[in-house]
Amino acid sequence: MLRHELHPGKLVVGTVLVLVGVLYAGDAGGAWETPWFVAIPLVTGGLCLAGAVGFLTGRVRRRRTSGRTTTDEPGPDMAA
Question: Is residue 12 within a helix (H) or strand (E), and if so which, with residue range?
């Protein structure tokens, strides 16, 4: 099975956009009143938060991979 890399920034954006969709679906269904301008700060804030999370994720991944070294020689477990 193929494993995919986790992208937390995309998870944040998806969650915020689903929240905005639910707010307006509730408004359209008559469950509550949602002003039209509510989506602007939610989407903008979600995009900014996702950008920060993506930036931090990239820094953490870069830091983890920079400490690793690769060698072509077999290690002690591989020398048989």
Answer: helix 8-29
> Would you state the structure tokens that stand for residue 46, as one six-digit string?
């979600």
Q: What are phi and psi of 64, to 5 degrees?
A: -65, -40
Tens-of-pLDDT digits for all 80 residues of the chain?
A: 668 888 999 999 999 999 999 999 999 999 999 999 999 999 999 999 999 999 999 999 888 887 766 666 665 665 55
Whole-number Å distance between alpha carbons of 6 and 70: 24
Alpha carbons within 13 A on the beta-carbon side of 69: 4
Put simply, whether the predicted model's pTM sits higher than 0.70 gets the answer yes
